Give the backbone structure.
Amino acid sequence: MMMRIDVISAVPDSLISPLNTSIIKRAQERKKVEIIVHNLRDYAHDKHKQIDDKPFGGGPGMLLKPEPFFECIEKLLCERKYDHIVFPTPGGKFYDQSIANKWSLAQNIMIIAGHYKGIDDRVREKFATDEISIGMYVLTGGEIAALVIIDSVVRLLPGVLNDSESALNDSLMDGNIIEAPYYTRPAEYKELKVPDVLLSGHEKNVREWKAEQSKILTEKWKKINKLEK
Ligand code: SAM
């Protein structure tokens, strides 16, 4: 069955172009995934379609109100079961390839994007099954985090990537390993040369060179990110 991803957003326009470009667009055309963006404002019923309000207890900024989220999420939950209801938040578990690999096996995923100062916490408390951070920085909204999650999951779905784009040997697909660098024509450009071994046509030497380069890049990556040996 085709995977379905629902995203609930206060600024749905920010999702439209990235979801309708390149491989993610093709994945939808190939019916590998259905991605539905819900405009939070469609679930606000007062005269001004208000979706935000001041936080109780004071402080700067506006919060997204609970009622439109509750209405939208409850409607979706009546229609189907979700494997993951994801709340992107700086306070969540760090997102990584192993999570993307696991979620690529899911049937239905819902992503609740915060905006402004965030969302009334009752929405997280009531519905979120997975609180996810995409890094140690603060974004203006959960939409970019949603796009990161969607992109990394959808490219893993069978039939989405063509052979030449295969995900299997990408960095981090097989544990904490960084891939060797790639080069294409021309073999020399502005006096910068492609390593001779790649032009040699000697398969075993190329394989050994790639393994060695991958080891060097992986060690460097671990060192600059202060990861364990
Ligand atoms: N007041 C919130 C806090 O201090 O945790 C930050 C709100 S942020 C300006 C607005 C929204 O962006 C959040 O509700 C969340 O959905 C999203 N967001 C911001 N940084 C994120 C990150 N590192 N990972 C995932 N989502 C993030």
In short: The helical segments are 13-19, 22-29, 66-79, 97-103, 121-127, 142-154, 196-199, 203-224. The chain has two domains: 3-154, 176-229.
